[in-house]
Amino acid sequence: GENVEQHPSTLSVQEGDSAVIKCTYSDSASNYFPWYKQELGKGPQLIIDIRSNVGEKKDQRIAVTLNKTAKHFSLHITETQPEDSAVYFCAASSDSGYALNFGKGTSLLVTP
Amino acid sequence: EAEVAQSPRYKITEKSQAVAFWCDPISGHATLYWYRQILGQGPELLVQFQDESVVDDSQLPKDRFSAERLKGVDSTLKIQPAELGDSAMYLCASSVTAYEQYFGPGTRLTVT
């Protein structure tokens, strides 16, 4: 089955700096790559996603890049703010099942 | 904004007891998922429904877990008997297409 690895497990940045989280996947059939933000005691919230026919997608301060050849994708957050502090999960799925295979998460801390 | 509803939000039960969780997906979402999230890890799929039919329950421990979605709308996940290792967050998600899964707030289960 699909194996998604996520790095780093923890990330601390100062307010205003950029943060980058990277994921790799194993199944070449994977074609959908969402990113979720999870705050303490809450369910994961979809923040951005990308499909395999696109190399990059941006939404305000958040961007995701995908390299299908290398089987890796990344989340970029610019101009970080304290409210960006949360656990971020990457995931991958394919048309064969649709269920998401998640990475183990990155705990992001943005300090003022 | 429509949301996935789950209840209860928290449940404490003794081992060997039965426990049930309820999920009401976003209206019009035909696909419903139950995930289990152990503390410090990403969610893992337990069961996936398309309308009232089970699409994937390969990771559901069927000796003690059961799930149903009788009318293709809301769903119930049951554990009987509960074991200490079942302590986790149980998340429900729904989607209208193969992509963009939206999660509920989850049920935090503690088995004592």
Textual characterization of the structure:
The complex is a heterodimer of chains A (112) and B (112). In chain A, 0% of the residues lie in helices and 54% in strands. Chain A is an all-beta fold and 112 residues long. In chain A, the strands form two sheets. In chain A, strands 2, 4, 5, 9, 10 and 11 form a six-stranded mixed sheet that branches. In chain A, strands 1-3-8-7-6 form a five-stranded antiparallel sheet, with no helix packed on it. The model of chain A has no long low-confidence stretch (mean pLDDT 94). With 112 residues, chain B is mainly beta. Helix content of chain B is 0%, strand content 49%. Chain B contains no helices and eleven strands. In chain B, strands 2, 4, 5, 6, 9, 10 and 11 form a seven-stranded mixed sheet that branches. A four-stranded antiparallel sheet of chain B has the order 1-3-8-7, with no helix packed on it. In chain B, a hairpin with a 6-residue loop joins strand 9 (88-95) and strand 10 (102-103). Chain B is globular, with a radius of gyration of 13 Å. The model of chain B has no long low-confidence stretch (mean pLDDT 95). The interface between A and B is medium-sized, with 25 and 26 residues.
